[in-house]
Write a structure and sequence with these properties.
The chain is mainly α. It is built from 14 helices and no strands. 75% of the residues lie in helices and 0% in strands. The N terminus and C terminus are likely disordered.
């Protein structure tokens, strides 16, 4: 009993930024797995909105919901990299954040269908206030970075109050979207303000952060495979008239996902996190990588609906449902992973292929052509990318 009591009182010491053999913990992996539920809940309405030709509403709702998911995940990830003590208090507080993620996931349908953000906001605030408790604990136990931790706690708490006040606005108010945008900017500003405190930045671990982001990329791509396979199964169960087209689409979709994985993991990322400014750019930019990766699954589901004649939409729109998120993914992988490392021809190949990807819906068999383009990009990347010395590492 004495040992357990001491565990509850254990101070939350900052972990060393150069700690050897630092890897993701089982709690972090469980955290990611539960967050994927929220990702899946946000991708499904995007699929249905595009299939019903409500593209603008679907994309807007998806971007708003995905921000809440990504931002809560990102803040926990960086905090854990610096202060993961894995004691009872830390575990319980993290489980509260997971519960908030599940509440958020339960509110996704209301947010999409009725623009009712009450439940999704409640889940988000639960996650964020649990993190406030973590930062207050860190402030008490880490005197050198106490100001940094207190700034985090104050900034997060104030913005959560503003999110709750936003619920008082009428649901059909024209200021809803601008207010949302301002609160997003406030959320993004909190880490910048906090990390510039006189006490210095938090002791995040570059290798650990890169691994955590990579693991979440894998999970989001896996969710894309699952969403697409479920759509294929449903279409095939409806009859054999479109079996050939669906099988070609299935193979092309699988190649697309394989290529996206390959391109992300072809270079190490930890050496890009050597300075605070670069770390913030890299960390924030992953909103587009994660969001587009999840959206590819919704796009493939739309393409299946079109191939099976289960939705009244044009082939061009179905093609762009996949091409746009793939193009966004390629551009930000190039911006965050390739451009800092690369010199020479390959520096221009990624943007060129990205532009070609956006043209594929205008021709026949857009997903198959897209898969061929990505296969070619992987081949060029393998041939040229590793011959050029890495200027960073």
């Amino acid at each position: 009993m004495a040992d357990r009591a001491r565990d509850w009182l254990r101070p939350m010491r900052a972990r060393a930024a150069d700690e050897p053999h630092r890897v993701a913990t089982p709690l972090e992996l469980f955290f990611d797995l539960c967050f994927v539920v929220a990702v899946a809940q946000s991708a499904a309405p995007l699929h249905h909105s595009i299939a019903e030709r409500h593209v603008a509403d679907g994309v807007r709702g998806y971007l708003m919901v995905f921000f809440a998911i990504w931002w809560a995940w990102m803040n926990f990830t960086w905090f854990a990299s610096a202060y993961d003590t894995d004691d009872d208090v830390y575990r319980i507080t993290t489980l509260v954040q997971i519960a908030g993620a599940l509440v958020l996931a339960a509110g996704v349908a209301d947010a999409f269908e009725r623009t009712d953000f009450r439940l999704i906001t409640a889940g988000y605030v639960i996650m964020r206030l649990a993190l406030v408790a973590q930062w207050l604990r860190a402030a008490r136990a880490d005197p050198p970075r106490r100001r940094t931790a207190i700034r985090y706690a104050i900034g997060i708490a104030v913005v959560q109050l503003l999110w709750l006040l936003r619920l008082l606005l009428p649901e059909d108010s024209s200021v809803q979207l601008p207010v949302f945008g301002l609160l997003v900017l406030a959320e993004l500003a909190v880490p910048v303000w906090a990390e510039l405190a006189p006490g210095g930045p938090t002791t995040y671990h570059p290798h650990h952060i890169a691994e955590r982001y990579g693991l979440f990329t894998i999970i989001v791509l896996g969710e894309t495979v699952l969403a697409a396979s479920n759509a294929f199964r449903g279409a095939l169960d409806g009859g054999g008239a479109h079996t050939g087209a669906l099988l070609r689409l299935a193979v092309a979709g699988l190649i697309v996902v394989f290529a996206l994985w390959w391109l992300y993991f072809d270079r190490p990322a930890h050496n890009l996190l050597s300075a605070l400014r670069h770390s913030l750019t890299w960390g924030y930019g992953h909103y587009f990588i994660f969001g587009s990766a999840a959206a590819v699954g919704a796009g493939l589901a739309v393409a299946v609906d079109h191939a099976a004649h289960q939705a009244e939409l044009s082939g061009v729109l179905a093609g762009y449902a996949v091409a746009v998120p793939v193009a966004v993914y390629l551009f930000f992988v190039w911006l965050l992973h390739v451009r800092p490392h690369q010199r020479g021809v390959l520096l221009f190949v990624f943007p060129a292929v990205t532009a070609l990807v956006l043209l594929t819906p205008l021709g026949p068999a857009p997903i198959e052509v897209l898969a061929a383009l990505l296969t070619g990009l992987v081949a060029v990347n393998v041939r040229l990318g590793r011959r050029v010395p890495d200027p960073i590492g």
